[in-house]
Specification:
This protein is of the alpha/beta class. The protein has helices spanning 22-35, 57-60, 75-89, 131-136, 143-149, 157-170, 194-206, 246-253, 268-283, 310-322, 334-338; strands spanning 48-53, 96-102, 115-116, 128-129, 140-141, 176-177, 212-216, 257-262, 291-294, 302-303, 307-308, 326-328. The longest helix has 16 residues, at 268-283. The N and C termini lie close together (11 Å).
């Protein structure tokens, strides 16, 4: 059953940061549930999960560190307007919400402070570092990073970064990208977008369904686009530096349907879906039909004159659809779509 959007939702505020009035929204959510006859999520006979990938200020608010503008210039803001409305309209159909939180500190392999050139200068944001760049010495681990992260030499960071860059190339991953400092733990950019946080909070009270938060990306030795696994799992000696998130995979596949949205379509969303598809293929390819991709609630990374991942993102979504996943528009009635 499609519901009206609650009157507190203001689409014009989605691109701004503000404090959610929790007490007021909780009272409204309880009244809303009573008015529309919403049952407790625990009583759902069909369990539907909504997975929100990195819907954080750092990616979604203009002027923040890695705002995902897409081709339109306001990509993530428009996406989140549609996403909030989708959640409110389908409040009674969505059983649980899980949100990933990209989580970083300064000295990580994809941030400028980790690397220096022969003159001791750090790479500019959006620099790509290949295995050849590491082998030639064009880029090397900063002595400050070594002192902070590997004072005893056990990690052997020079060997690790070469192994890492080669592993990305062998695995068909994006090359190591130096990103602007973003999603910094404890900072404003790390938080969920206010309007999305408000919608998730409203759902949690109206349906008595606590949201699940999945932290990713705090390992200094690897990128972590997908919430289901880091880009590289081992160091040069074969020791694990990260693990697959099998718990979340199982939680999602235990549901009758999984709906995905978030940022960016070309990176964290695409790799999360790709890893979920890999897990599905290893179990039962037919499980792909459980997955619904909110194609108008996600945008690719586009940096004019620097990078445009639109084609890569669109190709990935077409591949996911060919594997049995469904493309979904945010104006859809979930009950009607799921049957």
């Amino acid at each position: 059953m499609t519901l009206p959007v609650p009157p507190h939702f203001d689409p014009e505020r989605v691109g701004h940061v503000w404090r959610v009035p929790y007490g007021e929204r909780a009272e409204e959510a309880r009244s809303w549930a009573a008015r529309h006859g919403l049952r407790l999520a625990s009583r759902d006979t069909r369990r539907v999960a909504l997975l929100l990938v990195d819907v954080q200020n750092t990616f979604c608010i203009p002027g923040h560190e890695l705002f995902v503008a897409g081709l339109s210039g306001d990509g993530a803001v428009a996406d989140n307007r549609r996403l909030c409305a989708f959640l409110y309209r389908n409040l009674g159909s969505i059983t649980e919400v899980a949100a990933t939180l990209d989580t970083h500190t300064a000295l990580q392999i994809f941030h400028p402070a980790f690397w220096v050139d022969a003159e001791g200068c750090h790479p500019a944001p959006f620099t790509l570092i290949s295995a050849g760049d590491v082998e030639s010495g064009r880029w090397r681990v900063s002595p400050d990073a070594v002192a902070a992260l590997d004072p005893d030499g056990d990690l052997d960071l020079p060997a690790h970064v070469l192994h890492y860059a080669r592993a990305l190339e062998r695995g068909g991953k994006y090359p190591l990208t130096i990103w602007p400092y973003h999603a910094m733990l404890g900072g404003l950019g790390h938080a969920l977008v206010s309007a999305v946080e408000e919608a998730v909070f409203f759902h949690s009270v109206a349906r008595a369904s606590p949201p699940q938060f999945e932290v990713k990306g705090n390992n200094p030795l690897t990128e972590h686009y997908s919430v289901l696994r880091p880009e590289v799992l081992t160091d040069p000696r074969g020791r694990l530096i990260g693990e697959r998130n099998r718990r979340l995979v199982q939680r999602l596949l235990d549901c009758d349907a999984v709906v995905l949205a978030g940022q960016a379509k070309s990176h964290c969303v695409a790799w999360t879906i790709d890893d979920l598809l890999t897990e599905i293929a290893a179990r039962d390819p037919a499980l792909a039909s459980k997955v619904w991709l909110l194609e108008d609630c996600t945008s690719p990374v586009v940096v004019p004159g620097v990078a445009d991942y639109t084609a890569a993102a669109d190709a990935a979504f077409q591949r996911f659809a060919a594997a049995g996943m469904h493309l979904l528009r945010s104006d859809s009635d979930l009950d009607e779509v799921l049957g």
